[in-house]
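Researcher: I'd like a candidate sequence for this fold, 260 residues long. If you have to choose between options at a position, lean toward the conservative one.
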């Protein structure tokens, strides 16, 4: 096995790139890789220099799900419970991170790899990418990937992916809402950077407020959601960045964000 770190972490232009670095294992989410992701996201959450996070994969694929060899090497209820609790914790950490997360997808994203894409706020895929939740084919229904997938796309297409285990191509993934943009593979990095830089130019405080509000209101009834959103907009309006943004718009100049 490679002695390289399971996760590569680089920040440039306010954009943190987290690259899954287990190409020999198709970037399977081992416990070590998930721990590295959890630690990196914890650091990024407190780093004011980071505006946007990109999750990518080294080698020929994005992520092929959990590491089945590692799972079979340590069987038993306690090990399984710890593994899936860790995976769930990681996916929740992505959703609750106060910075937008973009998945850069190439090759395949299957099972927990597809869950990773569905848990990201946005996804840009190569036109050659494929997505699947194929656990049913090996007697293991993709129940934890199902949570993210069923919140990213419609119920019936999600059930079709889960029940058949068949893969879908990037064009279908975009049609279903699993990914935002599909580009030729040679243009994937440029497309991701263009989107990341566009978002990174916004107020970091506004992005944090908006991301939290988006996910919280989706779990509420309509009346509660509007009450919560109204309170959130009031809090946002009292921020310095909102005042600066409105004044800059009225003055026809570029805003200068402070994150306050």
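Model: Candidate sequence:
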């Amino acid at each position: 096995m490679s002695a390289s770190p399971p996760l590569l972490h680089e920040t440039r232009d306010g954009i943190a790139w987290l690259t899954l670095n287990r190409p020999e294992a198709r970037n399977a989410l081992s416990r070590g890789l998930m721990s590295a992701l959890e630690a990196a996201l914890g650091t990024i959450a407190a780093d004011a220099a980071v505006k946007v996070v990109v999750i990518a994969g080294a080698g020929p694929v994005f992520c092929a799900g959990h590491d089945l060899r590692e799972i079979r090497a340590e069987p038993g209820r306690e090990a399984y419970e710890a593994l899936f609790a860790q995976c769930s914790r990681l996916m929740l950490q992505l959703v609750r991170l106060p910075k937008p997360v973009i998945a850069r997808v190439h090759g395949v994203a299957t099972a927990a790899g597809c869950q990773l894409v569905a848990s990201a706020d946005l996804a840009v895929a190569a036109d050659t990418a494929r997505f699947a939740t194929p656990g049913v084919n090996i007697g293991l229904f993709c129940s934890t990937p199902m949570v993210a997938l069923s919140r990213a796309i419609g119920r019936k297409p999600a059930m079709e992916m889960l029940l058949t285990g068949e893969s879908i191509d990037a064009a279908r993934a975009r049609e279903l809402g699993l990914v935002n943009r599909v580009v030729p593979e040679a243009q994937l990095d440029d497309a991701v950077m263009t989107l990341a830089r566009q978002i990174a130019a916004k107020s970091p405080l506004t992005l944090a407020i908006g991301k939290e509000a988006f996910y919280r209101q989706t779990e509420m009834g309509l009346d509660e959601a509007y009450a919560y959103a109204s309170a959130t907009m009031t809090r946002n309006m009292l921020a310095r960045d909102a005042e600066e943004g409105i004044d800059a718009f009225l003055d026809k100049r570029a805003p200068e964000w402070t994150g306050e």
